[in-house]
Amino acid sequence: MLWYLLYPFRGTTSAPSLNPDHPLRRVLTRYGIGVARNVATTLLIFVAISTTLLYPIPFLYTSDFASGASNLPHHVWTNAQPIKGALAVEPDVIMRSIWVHGSYMKALDRKVLLSALELQDTLLGPTTNFAPRQPSNSIFVKDPLKDLTVIERDTFHVVNGLTNQSWFFHSPLLYWLSDRDAIANDPNILSTVNEHKKQHTSVNVTLRHSVVFSGKRFEDRALVAADALVITLIHLRDSPVGRQWERKTAELATHVADKFDVYPNKNPHNLSSQLYEFQFLPISWQDSIMLALAYGVTFIYVIQNLSKLPAIKSRPGLILTVVAQIFVSIMSSFTVCAVLKIDLSHIPRAAYPIVIVSMSLENMLRLIKGVIATNLEDSTSNRIGVAFGKTTHVAFASVMEHIFLLWGISKLVTSGLSDFCAFLAIAIVFDFFYLSTFFLAVLSCEVRRSELSEIIEKSSSTRRNKRSSSDPMYPHSYQSLGMPTSTAPPRPSWVAAMLQGRVDVSTRIAGTIILLGFVVIAQWHFFENESMSQTFRRLVVPGSGGLVGGSNNLTAWNSGSTLHQARSPTSWLRIQDHETAQEVINVVKPLAHSYVARVYEPLVFVLKGSDRMPSVVERPFLPAVYDFVRHQSQPFFLTIVVLTAAMRIFVNFLLWDEMGEASDESDTAESLLSVKTLDQGHALDVALMTASPDGLVVSVGLDRWIRVWNVPFGGMSYLLSSQDAPSDVPFPVLALTIDDDSAWLAILSSYQVMLWNLEAKQWGPSIAIDLCGQKPEAFFFTPNQKSPFLHSLVVVRRNGTLVELWAETGETVDFPVCKSPLVCAIPLHSSVTANGTSAFSIITASRNGCIHRVTPVGGDGWISEEIKNQSKNNEEHATSLVGMPLFSAYLVVRHSSVDLVDLVTSQTLHTFMPVSPIKSRTLRYLYSARRQTQRGSPELSYFSLVYNSSATGNCVLQTYLPKDEDGSIMFVPDEASTSGTGCSWYEARQAIKEVPNPGVWEALPNGCIIGVRQTDDDASDISLKSKNAKSATGVDAATTGTGSFRRRGLNVLASIDAATNAPAKKAHGRGTWEAWSISSVIDHGIGSDDDEDGNDDGYKGDNGYGRNAVAADGTSAATDKNYVARPLGVDQGELLVTEAGPIVCVGAGTVALGLGAAIKIITMGHERYGSPADMLEAAAGQMMANSVGNRRRKNRSVQRN
User: Which residue spans traverse the membrane (predicted)?
Assistant: First the structure.
């Protein structure tokens, strides 16, 4: 409701989202991660706290109001409320009373009791063994100023028939039958008082302690002291007994002045009065129907929302969790209300859960949807933490909003509803607490369990993305290429979407509406003679008459304020027992549910010589609380210990597998981006490196040493010995390569190729070669073996020729490739092509812009053919090439375009338009493949181009997404037709992000990017800024505003902003070396409830990656799950290094970086090293497992944290 009220000021009804670097969000995210990693501990804390709050309930509540405990709610509406400004209201009865005091809290002293009996007999006549029943109630009083005889008085008693002259009274002296001798000879007055607390008068009204005493003190459910004796006369309008009481109380002020101090002493003849309405209304069948409908609608609402969540198999568990949390919240609130003396007996017990349910569901559903919308690739703890960090501030704001609203309502309603508002406020706080502990822990278990995670991973987000046909995404310099655009389908109306079940009723306003509606209905029950509109007007219009506030209408009776009364008359009226009210109603208005009484200010009598100074301090809590502490402490703590221990065993049994997994997450959480240093291997800087997928790293230093490192075995290394070499190791080394089996290392110099056997650790044959004084463009082993021992080697020269070498025979053969000098050459081995065959080619690009494909011809050599069928928009020459072996394709990279070319047919499938000029030789790609169609064409969940901008130096992540959340991008030519859920490249949406000052980086097979950069000394925050824009479709579509779109439950922000096109600030001086990693190029945000309502001003998501401050202890304080960073931990020598060395990919998620004379091994998550064949197979499903597969396995030993 708060966000709707703020719409005129904010222009949107969506809840605000905190930036990832906001301190509050960072704290909440860390807390959520901590709870998810320590589920057992959190549940134990929950059990201990809930047991602490639930165990005392039977000892704090009772149906006996006279025992010092709270009164339980019943199936009735009860209230005692003042009526102000209602002069036309005729009271049903008149209540007059006298209070008799002795010393402070010593009203049960024998002298005080005998003095009170004297006053009672003076006012009413003799009352010893009071038995008013008479054979007739017909009598005539001749002189109204004359005292009534006993027979006349008793004849008018209501027990003889209800008339306008009837009367009856309450008095504690009836415990002794108003017998002076019984009082004087009673050996134990307290025992008599407690034994007769349920004694009935002649009209069946119970003489409860709350009625006949004021200022009571209880111990062990028994009365131990009282401050005043209360004698009350209740009579109808024309009662002669009432006139006699009124006349004699005025006379008593002067007649007993020598024995009592009388208050009010100024004018005891004219006592002030106040109209009160006492109500005891049983719940009606209309109320029962309304509550049944409310609970039924709530149940349907819960089922509807949970059925739309992809937690199919865990829905019963989630429902049980929701019910358990609401139950514990309500019961915990009952305990606190009892301790704080908040009376909850005014409202029917069936009404208490309904309001809490509606408010609690709001926060629960938001958190569940937030978890589902997080990155499926991330660990459970991170998913829970990110969702909690993104949603909890909204939940907290909702809690504060409702507390403030309840505080305001409590000032406008009856005292009974005011207490109910206090209960709701306490329950909301408890519900938020249990949401942050119990529900969060259980939800993390449900997400971690396979039955929920499988469904979540198989499901897409239930809400559609907002489409936009806004301005183009790219700079004007890239819009003139004439690319076709597509128009998104028109968005259905809100009504149509609602009828299709695609729009939910927002829970953000439902709880507030139910709260306000219930308050109006409850208030209406207390004014049953009014219409609903009059009751509503009474609430919202000040001064509209009648009840304006529960406690503000009480007449201030302060005549006895100097007496230090333990309880004032006004307070005494508020706590009157409602069952007594029912009994009085049965006497004065049979078959009615309420009566109006004119209550006169009591006349107070204080024995002369009494000490009214308080001898003890009034205890702040309910007496039953102190009884509980005194008698139940040991079993209470024993129960907590036993239940906590039992829950510990039970949780260990249920979460045995998950706890081990969570332990792995916890162990690696702080080292998610782990950095290891391989030093003492080189004396001078590392100049060249290569690596194999199974963890071997070969480094060449300026010290002319070549060293082999075994990363999986802790970085063990050895130096290539020159003793057994067939010749001196030639330096400088120009290139290194390792064969697919990790058996041979080839070392290329300007005139020789030498082979090293990695398995036998000895030198192999060497071959002479002539590079014509230039560095090679490519150096690699061929995948086809010409001999049973060694693959052949290929060197592609820059002059446009290649040479193939056979080490065993020493044979070399030269082949022409291109007449022009080359700028790039790549080997491309596709294991399966479109026609089901294997293909190996060498793709080259020359300075003149021509592209050649070189293929082997049996054993007879190589054939080079120029690719003629290139894109027409290729006025620029190619700067580099990137192979895509899993798709039998390659990328031709130019500064302002990237062509996707099929390897077999040489057809240009699509031309990508970068948002910024591409720096030469920096382009990489990432993708997520879903499956292959029957035609063999892959289907992509997303495809990303990653490159450095030559204009800004930033690392740009340009992601293509299907136009539909359940769709895919077809890896087919643009002109080919697509069907089903597939879309063409032109129809794909885009997301753009930039990483300032990226340094050196590498894209890895597991889908993450790892980089190393140097920051200034004063740059403690490492930021990853993104640009914001609305989603777009089409290759040359762009956006200039902000917005969001979602796919597979993930928010993806597309953006372009001129502000970030400024050159990145470079580090200068001695900066700090830092490793950073992005686990995905997609920003996974959380949708808002506005998406459910069909609003166009929905959740905007995060504007890029969050800032991640680096702590002093070397750990990362990253706040966004997609970006982590940590210092490299360089030593004194490495501090002088101003430029990072070579970087190579090792395994699926590890890079090796040369930094000075050391090698840094940087790993993202868990690394599994494998053979090249295994890595090729893993790359075949490169990101197929990235979004789904890695979470389908029960054993998630490689799950990233």
Answer: 39-61, 289-306, 318-340, 392-409, 421-443, 509-527
